[in-house]
Amino acid sequence: MKQLKCISILAGVAATALTGLVATASADELVLSSWLPPKHPIVTGVIQPWADQVAEATEGRVTVRILPKPVGSPPEHFDLAAEGIVDITYGLHSFTKDDRFLRSRIGQFSFIADTATEGSKAYWDVYAGTMDAQAEHQGTKLLGLWVHGPGMFHNNQRKIETPEDFSGLKVRTPGGYIAGLAQELDIITQFMGPGEVYEKLSRGVIDGVTFPMEALQAFNLTDHVKYSMRVPGGIYNTSWFMVMNEDIWDGISTEDQSAIEKVSGAALAELAGSVWDGADTRGAAYIADKDIEVYDAPAPVLAALKELAAKHEATWADAVQKTGFDGTAALAEFRGKTGINP
User: By the 8 A CB rule, do 324 and 332 touch?
Assistant: First the structure.
């Protein structure tokens, strides 16, 4: 493997995140910037186990060191890898506001999967396969794709019983599809990293948040949420990536590239999905005795969501068609794999 490139710090990126860490990296040690809390299930159950698997699969020739602090903000993480600031990153496609990940949005729609495992496996199969995800992740080697469990609508103001009940609520969304959908429901959307939600929710800056079940426990939100609405297949989802800088990947031997690919891709999707599902199960048990009403979306709400979702899907499919792909067929393939029929 060729020597790692020296890691420089972009303007606006805190130098303290790397002080004393990168300078000691050896030629076979890759540096991964992680922005989730260190004890988040994705870090402890996916990122670290994957790093351990890489070391085992390559017999120690390639190792991955997870930095204790992120190098940049969550939205910066794809570019941190693409530009060689760090070697490996992960993140949400919806954090990137341009259209470079247009086809990735297939993993963000409503009504796509009842479990993260089913959704993540389908997402890898369809987006990485039929929709050529690698081509949208320029400057990197695409190592993994996954989605979290079914997205829910949590708030502390009122139970959502009609579409009109959404009106005026101030809600954090992760951007992308769900932000547009929420705005059409007359929701005042706010974008922020997940780590900021507790403070904003506890202070009344926002009334609610779109998150999967596990997040109520993971981000300590149970004292500030009163109503949690479930939607079959999720009111939305988030699409995640894990990438490695392309030059670093090209410097790895063919043997070790093959070994890394075996523990990435489909295997990583299944691992991430199973971890999300486990976290959702624990989250549901954790809030069972809390003062939170968990309920299924009423029929009028579901009808409104389906109508709006169909419009968003059609607009996306038209845009995707212009890039030479059949979005409608891909979405049908996705739902066929997960068994969802909205």
Answer: no
